[in-house]
Amino acid sequence: MRDGRPRPRPENMTPGGTGITPGNGRARPPTSGASPPQEPHLCTNASRQGRAACCGPSRVTGTVTVVEISELSVPDAWVFTPRQHSDSRGTFLEWFRSDALAEVVGHPLALSQANHSVSRSGTLRGVHYAQVPPSQAKYVTCVRGRVLDCVVDIRTGSPTFGAFASVVLDDVDRCGLYVSEGLGHAFMALTDDAAISYLCSTPYTPDREFGIHPLDPDLALPWPPELVPLLSAKDSAAPTLKEAESAGLLPTYRECQALYRELRAAGAAASVGAGGGR
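-> structure tokens emitted (278 positions)
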């Protein structure tokens, strides 16, 4: 027990130390001067009761050739694996492509704020979300070190309410993670000085920001048991998912879907106005 709340029991973790199950996403082919191929992104999901299950093969949903796009088991969250170009000078990649994101999400990311955090190993941030509407969509990437990132479906009425998907983000594959409005987001630093950059669709608005305790045993998020979680006072005092649901603090699946339709319609109208359609 930590900060008055129990940690998920080790038996709720998947074996292997990190509590994560490898997926079957395709590894990127090696390029000249590149390091040996690494494992593709790793992901798991679990029911609200904490029963772990593999996400299974990644479903490639995008066609933009500079990036591979896979939807997670939690709907409305995607992983973007960029193509890297390496030579004797170093490496170049496009870590964000608006057209690639809009292709699968249905609208572009309206950039309002860019954040950057640096965390010591074991630092646990989240589970954070913003009130809908307008909430806040995020595009997250790890520029140094390695983190375990979790997306949680906290939308009441969702077919996957209470489920999560987890992804390892690092400075090797340099994947990006898109988290739609209304979803919960949390990550743990797996290395010292892990640096995360993320693009946000709306500015930070304190009175519209909420959280779920990241060590909620009902969620059983797969934080590595060998790391001692380091939480902020605010995150330590956050309610469990059940408590937040009982208090009426969670977004609904219906209002999130309505927001997504509104954003797609606005994106389509903007495309037509810019000469992108007839």
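The helical segments are 98-105, 233-236, 241-246, 253-273.
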